[in-house]
Amino acid sequence: MGIISWIIVGGLAGWLSTKIITPKNKKGCFGNIILGIVGAFVGGFIVSKLGGTGVNELNIHGILVATLGAIIILWISKLISK
Fold it and tell me: What's this model's pTM, rounded to 2 decimal places?
């Protein structure tokens, strides 16, 4: 995937994950992109360990995997902050 694809997937995944986990807490555009890109790495790692494929293309599967990873990151950060 190219840099533009990573930005698009990251932005969508970050936005979706913040709407699911912390709907009142807004990360901003740049924060959502970073959260989604890191979430793509985390989600891709977890899904590949379970026998699936990570984020390889700009498609629904890639966005869902990245969103899963971003949700895990937000969930862990909520546990740590409490």
Answer: 0.83
